[in-house]
Design brief:
Elements (H helix, E strand, L loop, with lengths): L1 E11 L5 E12 L4 E5 L6 H8 L7 E6 L2 E2 L5 H11 E5 L10 H10 L8 H11 L15 H13 L5 E5 L7 H16 L3 E6 L3 H5 L2 E6 L2 E2 L1
Parallel strand pairs: 3-8, 3-9, 6-7, 7-8
Antiparallel strand pairs: 1-2, 1-4, 4-5, 9-10
The protein binds adenosine-5'-diphosphate (ADP) and magnesium ion.
Adenosine-5'-diphosphate binds next to strand 2 and helix 1.
């Protein structure tokens, strides 16, 4: 699913000069794996996910995800890759506050070149998959933190991605709720979804099939 070799990412950090965040990071992930990448805050976990998800183009190295060679790809092709192949889950949910859970799940697809005709049925199915079938009409303000993250996961699953990329997905949740979300990831992984989750928490370690550590810009 993922073959990333020698990924280097250097930021121009103003007065502090050049900041090397990824320094030859190499990562292989097989189809169906659930990989946790741990590392302290600032070690480059989000930067790595942005590279793998086709959200960043300013790196060096060879990155192939789901058979698509990402380095050197045009913006249009990267955008298509993101829409069709990966789902993103973030720490802070990134839901739109004024609209329903159902509408949040459908939103990305509404902006697609050709939205599917069965948009709503598919969004309802996605909410069912994350265990929230009866919450479709509620707005994010009427949902708990864990429920909000479930809606965000349903949105990420909407286009049937092959890969789920999660950035500190339990970072904003209390311990019991975080355990529920981790259990959901395990369930999704068991149904065939490949998952890469970056975290500085220990919680995801136990659930993952493999744990890698990001340190000094490299994975080990
Ligand atoms: N766009 C950027 N410009 C400059 N520095 C950045 C940028 N993005 C991240 N960084 C820096 O790179 C380092 C790693 O960031 P990040 O990948 O967000 O770490 P983590 O997710 O592990 O906490 C940090 O020092 C951060 O300040
Ligand atoms: Mg981060």
């Amino acid at each position: 699913m993922i073959d990333a070799k020698g990924v280097c990412r250097v930021f121009d950090d103003g007065e502090r000069g050049r900041l090397t965040v990824l320094d030859g990071a190499t990562l292989q992930v097989a189809d169906g794996e659930f990989v946790a990448v741990v590392g302290r805050s600032g070690s480059g976990k989000s930067t790595l996910l942005h590279v793998l998800g086709g959200l960043d183009t300013g790196y060096r190295g060879e990155v192939t995800v789901a058979g698509v060679r990402l380095d050197g790809l045009s913006d249009a092709a990267l955008s298509r890759f993101r829409n069709e192949t990966v789902g993103f889950v973030f720490q802070s949910f990134h839901l739109v506050s004024g609209v329903s859970a159902l509408e949040n799940v459908m939103l990305p697809a509404r902006f697609a070149a050709s939205p599917p005709a069965d948009l709503e049925a598919r969004a309802r199915a996605a909410l069912e998959r994350v265990g929230l079938p009866s919450h479709a009409a509620r707005s994010p303000g009427q949902l708990s933190g864990g429920e909000r993250q479930r809606v965000a996961i349903a949105r990420a699953l909407f286009a049937s991605p092959r890969l789920l990329l999660c950035d500190e997905p339990t970072g904003n949740l209390d311990a019991a709720t975080a355990d529920d979300i981790v259990a959901l990831f395990k369930q999704l992984n068991a149904s065939g979804l490949t998952i890469v989750a970056v975290t500085h928490e220990d919680r995801l370690r136990a659930a993952a099939s493999r744990v890698l550590t990001l340190s000094g810009g490299r994975l080990s």
